């Protein structure tokens, strides 16, 4: 099994869709673009985590983690991938292996778990995820899954991506390999049209796919399969009949697109749903490729008409925010397509991008940043929290857009912060999504809490006072003064009462 995993990783690294990879020699190409993880280096996600988040948005299958319960707890539901129907994917399934399983093996427990899931939930398929512990003790999940498929008459798909194999991005690709090996091409769609497409690497975070689908519906374009946001097993299994593949998310599942092109002759392109101009370019690319594949040429005219109407509507709404956002400086700490695709929309609203992170960006992403922001664009490869804090504290940025892990840097610097990564609660895809993003930035900047937290504390600069009176100094001044008056009044009444008693 270890040998098969090693061979699969080498196959993933020999990627013809990666321009950087093609510039290497044959020997260097097979070494890949990653290093073995050292302890603590998986803070940004291990290979298992990458495979799980790439496949879990397939909503009607059971996702079974073969390993200790902590692995499932760490990766379950850590993205806001929404479903329009089935919610089986929201249930966390794990074999929960213990010390005895480590000694005697966990294969029997895995087989029993598959049987229990099928009896209780009857999903169209089960995805079984390998983890570090079960890979190290030698559990052969491929053999168990094959036996379970034969026994129960349901596809049981092994996802061999133990965490120690590498980082999260490698896990995305290993998860995609499981789809290519066991799912895609195994079923046929009920109907096909000349306007069928697959969207690869879109996870329907906060329902973003649902902001794109109406645009495609208006053009008569059908999403045959989304891999994997709001996906269904049958759709993914029959996705080989699409006419065009669109690659999203900075090539995290590029191996699906390149291998489907090689095996089924489906052309692909990389596009983005973030940013008004980029959304328009994506619609044009889809239409052009569909026409090349046999669709009616009038699709191009309808696409341009839709783009003109949607762009006009979006820009008019963004203009309303311009007086308040003009000149505001934004620090963008993200990666992939978002490192450049939201920049144009923010600039349209009058904001200035003081820097954008390129840690997870490809060579093509960096070139796009230069096109939009100029050759002197401030591209941040790996900014430390200390540097991030200093940049915000020195007020070189008015707001930071980033993921949840860096939010506390902004909060410590008492600067506005907006979540733009997968944990966000708002959909920023498509034309509507860009208007939502600008609106959320406006609300974050105008929030009165920032003015309040920047005020000096009431006790700053106060003289040292006796301990018995210290609690009063924590009170607001009017309350403190009223308390002092009341206390003096009580003392005077006490003195008068004592004098009358005598």
TrEMBL record:
Q: Please give the pathway this protein is involved in.
A: Cofactor biosynthesis; Fe-Mo cofactor biosynthesis
Keyword Metal-binding among record annotations: no
Q: Which keywords, in A-to-Z order, does the entry hold?
A: Nitrogen fixation
Listed transmembrane segments: none
CDD domains linked: Nitrogenase_NifE_I (cd01968)
Q: Which domain of life is it from?
A: Bacteria
Q: Where is the Nitrogenase/oxidoreductase component domain?
A: 46-445
Which InterPro entries does this one have? Nase/OxRdtase_comp1, Nase_comp1_CS, NifE, NifE-like
UniProt xrefs under SUPFAM superfamilies: Helical backbone' metal receptor
Q: Which Gene Ontology terms describe the biological processes this protein takes part in?
A: protein-containing complex assembly
Question: What is the annotated role of this protein in its UniProt record?
Answer: This protein may play a role in the biosynthesis of the prosthetic group of nitrogenase (FeMo cofactor).
User: What family does this belong to?
Assistant: Belongs to the NifD/NifK/NifE/NifN family.
Q: Under which name does UniProt file this protein?
A: Nitrogenase iron-molybdenum cofactor biosynthesis protein NifE
**What species does this protein belong to?**
Derxia gummosa DSM 723
């Amino acid at each position: 099994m270890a040998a098969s995993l090693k061979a699969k990783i080498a196959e993933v690294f020999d990627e013809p869709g990666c321009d950087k990879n093609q510039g290497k020699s044959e020997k260097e190409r097979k070494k890949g673009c990653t290093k073995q993880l050292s302890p603590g280096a998986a803070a940004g996600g291990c290979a298992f985590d990458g495979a799980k988040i790439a496949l879990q948005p397939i909503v009607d299958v059971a996702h079974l983690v073969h390993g200790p319960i902590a692995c499932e707890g760490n990766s379950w539901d850590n993205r806001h991938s929404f479903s329009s129907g089935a919610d089986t994917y929201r249930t966390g399934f794990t074999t929960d292996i213990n010390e005895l399983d480590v000694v005697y093996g966990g294969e029997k427990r895995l087989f029993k778990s598959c049987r229990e899931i099928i009896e209780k939930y009857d999903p169209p398929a089960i995805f079984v995820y390998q983890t570090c512990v079960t890979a190290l003790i030698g559990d052969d999940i491929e053999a168990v899954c094959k036996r379970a498929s034969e026994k129960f008459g349901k596809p049981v798909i092994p996802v061999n991506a133990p965490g120690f194999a590498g980082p999260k991005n490698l896990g995305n690709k290993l998860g995609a390999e499981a789809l290519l090996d066991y799912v895609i091409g195994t079923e046929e769609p009920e109907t096909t049209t000349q306007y069928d497409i697959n969207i690869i690497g879109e996870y329907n975070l906060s329902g973003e796919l649902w902001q794109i689908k109406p645009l495609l519906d208006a053009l008569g374009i059908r999403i045959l399969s989304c891999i994997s946001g709001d996906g269904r097993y049958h759709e993914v299994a029959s996705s080989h009949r699409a006419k065009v593949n669109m690659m999203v998310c900075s090539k995290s599942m590029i191996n699906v697109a390149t291998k489907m092109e090689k095996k089924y002759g489906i052309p692909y392109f990389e596009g983005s749903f973030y940013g008004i101009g980029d959304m328009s370019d994506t619609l044009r690319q889809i239409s052009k490729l569909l026409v090349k594949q046999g669709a009616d040429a009038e699709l191009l005219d309808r696409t341009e008409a839709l783009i003109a109407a949607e762009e006009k509507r979006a820009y008019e709404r963004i203009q309303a925010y311009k007086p308040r956002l003009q000149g505001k400086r934004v620090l963008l700490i993200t990666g992939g397509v978002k490192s450049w695709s939201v920049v144009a929309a923010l600039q349209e609203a009058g904001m200035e991008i003081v820097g954008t992170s390129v840690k997870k960006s490809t060579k093509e992403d960096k070139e796009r940043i230069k096109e939009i922001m100029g050759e002197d664009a401030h591209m941040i490869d790996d900014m430390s929290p200390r540097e991030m804090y200093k940049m915000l504290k020195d007020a070189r940025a008015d707001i930071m857009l980033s993921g949840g892990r860096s939010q506390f840097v902004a909060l410590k610097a008492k600067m506005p912060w907006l979540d733009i990564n997968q944990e966000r609660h708002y959909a920023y895809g498509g034309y509507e999504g860009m208007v939502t993003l600008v609106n959320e930035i406006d609300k974050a900047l105008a929030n009165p809490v920032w003015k309040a937290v920047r005020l000096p504390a009431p006790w700053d600069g106060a003289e040292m006072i006796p301990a018995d009176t210290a609690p009063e100094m924590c009170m607001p001044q009017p309350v403190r003064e009223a308390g002092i008056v009341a206390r003096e009044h009580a003392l005077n009444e006490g003195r008068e009462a004592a004098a009358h008693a005598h």
